[in-house]
Amino acid sequence: MIDFTFTEEQEMFRKAAREFAETQVAPKVAEMETTGEVCDEVVKALGEAEMMALTIPEEYGGLGLGYTARLIALEEISKVSVGTAMMLQVFALGIEPIIKFGTEEQKKKYLPALAKGERLASTAVTEATGGSDPTGIRTSYRKEGNDYILNGRKCFITNSHIADTITTLAKDNENPKAYSTFILEKGMDGFKPTHKEHKLGMRGCNTGELAFENCRVSGENLVGEEGKGMRVALGAIGDVGRGGMVGCALGLQAACLEASVKFATERILYGKPISNLQTIQNKLAEMKIDLEAGRLLGYRAAAIQDKGGRSSNEFAVAKYFTTEAAQKAAKMAVDIHGGYGCMEEYAVSRYLRDSFVLGPSAGTSDIMKVIIARWVLS
Ligand SMILES: Cc1cc2nc3c(=O)[nH]c(=O)nc-3n(C[C@H](O)[C@H](O)[C@H](O)COP(=O)(O)OP(=O)(O)OC[C@H]3O[C@@H](n4cnc5c(N)ncnc54)[C@H](O)[C@@H]3O)c2cc1C
Q1: CA distance 22 to 130
Q2: In this structure, what are the phi and psi dihedrals at residue 358, rounded to the nearest 5 degrees?
Q3: What distance in angstroms lies between residue 319's CA and the mean position of ligand 1's atoms?
């Protein structure tokens, strides 16, 4: 039997995540949009609320609640701040290689502090020469005894300047077809964050560049087998990366609908609220249809993942649908607000900017279609 309902625990968790977002994140949104960082108070509160612990197994200090819970948390937080949700999404993406492919020593060393939010995480795959095509990356490593020496630059990295533990992908400079994944730690010699980006949207979180200059990484920090790193990195992006972006997109869709319903029922034209106008009602109905459909796609993929299956194809469908729907919803929300929608004091103008930044992260819509077509044709 297919059960389309959330459990009582999941409903309670959603309520708690919503309260958390409204009380701990919402008051800081304006500040974070200006500074381009998730502020320390929010990071601390996320840690205390165990939001970083969701996907970490209990034996390593996590909650082991899984991917449905993570999607619920991201949806509720993104409804208030897409930037904060993005910070949290890439945190989980960064630690996934350690959870799935890490040695016992690596898990014991890194996961407990990450679960408490005492350390922050990220993943660094993209480079100027390798985004949609990760085989184009140029960051390379060479072996020196038990160590690896990394050289190169990563761009568009979420949490670039605040992460303490970063999983990264590099290619073997003697065998350009072999890639390996490494754990980097803040403060390692030859490793530093450089340029900070100023983004179109999702401004409330940090995105930037990382540089490796003869960065010496111990063999103990190799994740998975040497030369098999592409599978480690892409596996995490496929499930956790795409899944996280679905959570961010669903939250934004829900925020657009809620703001539009509020405005449409309060704005009086011709002596009546504009919610009486059929054109406005059509937009609200379309937003609701897309939100419900997106939720079904996203939570279904998360449920498959929670049962131990791979759901990267299902998440490709959900990511394509929800990120495109979020853009559509944000445009309709701005339209419903008339001139007010173009003013900064109305959140829908931020939603529109944010909606455009959801697309590229964890793979563009074009790439989702490539993946979906490959799935269909196989
Ligand atoms: C806000 C933000 C946060 C990010 N955070 C991270 C992070 O934490 N870590 C990380 O590693 N990366 C991160 N990224 C990078 C992101 O994964 C890449 O931007 C994305 O994979 C696209 O790569 P690109 O920007 O190089 O675009 P390109 O790959 O250069 O794509 C350019 C255009 O070509 C199209 N295209 C490319 N290939 C094909 C194809 N085969 N068929 C059809 N069309 C194609 C694309 O759809 C796009 O329209 C982030 C990006 C953003 C915007």
Answers
A1: 38
A2: -65, -30
A3: 14
pLDDT digits (tens, 9 = 90+) for 162-180: 999 999 999 999 998 999 9
Q: Indicate the DSSP class of residue 125.
A: -
Domains and CATH numbers, the chain: 8-115 (1.10.540.10), 121-230 (2.40.110.10), 237-377 (1.20.140.10)
Each residue of 56-106: pLDDT tens digit? 999 999 999 999 999 999 999 999 999 999 999 999 999 999 999 999 999
365 CA: nearest ligand 1 atom: 47
Is the overall model pTM greater than 0.85, yes or no? yes
Cβ-based neighbour number of residue 142 at 10 Å: 14
Structure tokens of 224? 């998975």
Atom of ligand 1 nearest to the CA of 126: 11
How many Cβ atoms sit within 10 Å of the Cβ of residue 375?
A: 13
Strand pairing of 191-196 and 272-273?
unpaired
Which helix (DSSP H) or strand (DSSP E) does residue 316 occupy? helix 312-336
Burial class (CB in 10 A: 0-12, 13-18, 19+), 159: buried
User: Best mutation site among 87, 96, 135, 156 for ligand 1, i.e. most ligand atoms within 8 A of its Cβ?
Assistant: 156
Residue 345: burial class (beta carbons within 10 Å; 0-12, 13-18, 19+): exposed
* Cβ atoms within 10 Å, residue 343: 10
Cβ neighbours of residue 276 under 8 Å, at least 6 residues apart? none
> How far is it, in rounded angstroms, from Cα 167 to Cα 199?
23
* Run of H or E residues at 92: helix 82-101
Counted residue by residue, the chain has a size of: 378
Amino acid at 63: L
245 lines ligand 1 (CB under 6 A): no
